[in-house]
Amino acid sequence: MSELDMTPYDAIISKRDVRHYIDSPIADDVMARILQAGRMAGSAKNVEANRLLVITDKTVQEALTHAGDFSQWINTAAAIVGFASPASELRLFDVGRQAQNMMVAAHGEGVASCPVTLHHAEIGRAAVGLPDDWEMPMVITLGWPVDDVPDSPLKRTRVALNDLVRYDRWS
């Protein structure tokens, strides 16, 4: 089954985080669909405070590599999308909803992605020129995957569903 033939469920369960990309841009129509998927994510109280910052400039991407403890590789992506919000309106759940929508939509397009936490807010803010009263706690990377994506060194079997789920009460 090709990526474009996937059901939403197939896209969700087959999506994996990828950090290895070929050097090729993402077409405008593909990027527009990915961004639209983020736009359509729900927002607590319908505030819609988040703004998406699409970063393709390699100088800005390089500066962002220093904003996270595990982000040294992010400048290899065709695009980095930052999730920015006024600090007073930051809702991490909304950021996660947008990010997941976009990563699943990207996967459906054949575009690989990976979420990245920015641990050093001041470095990220300076890299993209974000106002002092705004936060950008995370980004996602987007790019066309290499043909032979290496296995993650952290690869493991997922927790079994019957170990993950509890019904009605904890015990």
Describe this structure in words.
The structure is a single chain. The protein has 171 residues and is of the alpha+beta class. The protein has a single domain (3-148), classed as NADH Oxidase (3-Layer(aba) Sandwich). Helix content is 33%, strand content 17%. Helix 2 runs antiparallel to helix 4 and helix 3 (58-64) packs antiparallel against helix 5 (121-128). The N and C termini lie far apart (41 Å).
Characterize this entry briefly.
This protein has 171 residues and is α+β, with helices and mostly antiparallel strands. The chain has helices at residues 8-14, 28-39, 58-64, 92-109, 121-128, 161-164; strands at 51-55, 79-86, 112-117, 134-143.
What labels would you give this structure?
171 residues; alpha+beta; NADH Oxidase; four-stranded antiparallel sheet; 4 strands; globular
Q: What is the CATH homologous superfamily assignment? A: NADH Oxidase
The structural domain count equals 1
The average pLDDT is 92
Q: SSE order in H/E notation?
A: HHEHEHEHEH
CATH architectural label: 3-Layer(aba) Sandwich
Please give the number of β-strands: 4
Our estimate of the beta-strand percent is 15-25%
Rg is 17 Å
How widely separated are the two ends? 41 Å
Low-confidence stretches: none
SSE-based structural type: alpha+beta
Helix share, percent? 25-40%
Q: So how many helices? A: 6
CATH top level is: Alpha Beta
Question: CATH fold name, please?
Answer: NADH Oxidase
Question: Mind summarizing the main beta sheet?
Answer: 4 strands, antiparallel
Shape: globular
List the strand order in the largest sheet. Answer: 1-2-4-3
